[in-house]
Amino acid sequence: MNSILKNKISDSAYLTNVSRSKSLNISKDIYAHLWIPSDKKEEVYKLWDRYANSVYPYDDIELGIRTNYFLQILQSQLIANPDIVFVNLGSGFTSYQYLVNQDFLTIEVDVPDIINEKKNRANKLIKEQILPKRETLYLSCDFNDSELRVKLYKKI
């Protein structure tokens, strides 16, 4: 097991962002690279190369297409429903609310370690005026726990 994140955040959350950034022309996620802390980039990119060589060399293309697909749906829904609330379950380090030109309420849900890291990183990037300010509510939930899923549903 790679010790990049000391078992606090899954390696796959960062690998996903490497894939999005490698397929920028497809994914359109200009912020994907920002979710990986500078001091971890080299190690995360090396891990992505090992993953691509051993498991799935086209992950960047697949994730680029998937990201673009959901981004297009979000953009069309914002046109049709400007007061939309976007609930992003298993949000990881996605950038959807920052990739569109209007602010709307986004509720991001993931495991506590990812949510804490995402919230802190987003606040830092917004303060530095790298990301646009967006209304985002961060909620933690381990989807493996049915009681927590019910509490999450009631909270939303």
**Tally of alpha and pi helices:** 7
Element-by-element helix/strand order: HHHHEHEHEH
Mean pLDDT comes to 93
User: What is the number of beta strands?
Assistant: 3
Please supply descriptive tags for the structure shown above.
globular, 10% strand, mainly alpha, 156 residues, 3 strands, 3-stranded parallel β-sheet
Short description:
This protein has about 160 residues and is mainly alpha-helical. The protein is built from seven helices and three strands, in the order ααααβαβαβα.
Descriptive overview:
The protein is mostly helical. Helix content is 53%, strand content 10%. The chain has 7 helices and 3 strands. Strands 1-2-3 form a 3-stranded parallel sheet. Helix 5 links the parallel strand 1 (85-89) and strand 2 (105-110). Helix 1 packs across helix 3 and helix 1 (11-22) crosses helix 4. The longest helix has 22 residues, at 59-80. The model has no long low-confidence stretch (mean pLDDT 93).
How is the secondary structure organized here?
Blueprint: H1 11-22, H2 24-27, H3 41-54, H4 59-80, E1 85-89, H5 96-99, E2 105-110, H6 112-127, E3 136-140, H7 146-155
Parallel strand pairs: 1-2, 2-3
